[in-house]
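User: Please fill in residues for this 205-position structure.
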């Protein structure tokens, strides 16, 4: 743990804080009401802070575990690649940006709320893919590892499907827009990553 705190302090703090906040919310329903994204209010200039706080809580243990496991696999390596403040900005900016389409989509739906760090985590995953698209990954139930770039495509396809099927408060739309935000921010920080990404693909396939 000391090594993580020393070498990747931002990723470590975000992981610990998100887990603690989510676990606390499981036993305190009031937190959901205060922290969940409410597009109707945000579109009217109210509860704007929920653009960030909605990423600190999760629907249930399964939602929390999936998000934090995905985060763990990518975040620490990415912070080591792009730097501490860059990682912090990418995570927080993508968390907010990934919710903007949801706000536009549901700005007249007073009943609608959403939660989860999915947008920011998708941003982390796809930022990592730009740097290392051919890293092999395992996805259940596929029996063989697949390159990260293919994983990313499947991840987005699932997000679109789940968004059309889901009736929960989990914001699946945020996966897609978080991925786009993460790639754009990464390219702004490191324009050379485009040539690196293409070179990795051409050299690996």
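Assistant: Residues filled in for all 205 positions:
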């Amino acid at each position: 743990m000391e090594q993580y705190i020393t070498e990747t302090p931002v990723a470590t703090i975000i992981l610990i804080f998100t887990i603690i906040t989510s676990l606390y919310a499981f036993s305190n329903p009031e937190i959901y009401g205060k922290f969940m994204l409410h597009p109707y209010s945000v579109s009217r200039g109210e509860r704007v802070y929920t653009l960030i706080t909605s990423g600190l809580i999760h629907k249930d243990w399964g939602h929390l575990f999936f998000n934090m496991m995905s985060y763990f696999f990518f975040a620490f390596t990415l912070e080591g690649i792009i730097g501490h403040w860059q990682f912090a900005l990418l995570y927080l900016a993508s968390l907010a940006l990934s919710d903007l389409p949801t706000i536009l989509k549901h700005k007249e739906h007073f009943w609608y709320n959403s939660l989860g760090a999915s947008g920011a985590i998708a941003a982390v995953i796809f930022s990592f893919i730009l740097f290392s698209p051919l890293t092999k990954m395992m996805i259940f139930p596929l029996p063989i590892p697949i390159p990260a770039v293919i994983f990313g495509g499947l991840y987005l396809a699932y997000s679109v499907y789940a968004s059309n099927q889901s009736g929960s408060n989990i914001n699946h739309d945020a996966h897609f827009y978080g991925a786009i935000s993460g790639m754009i921010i990464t390219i702004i920080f490191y324009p050379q990553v485009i040539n690196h990404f293409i070179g990795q693909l051409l050299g690996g396939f």
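For context: Residues 134 and 205 are 9 Å apart (CA to CA).
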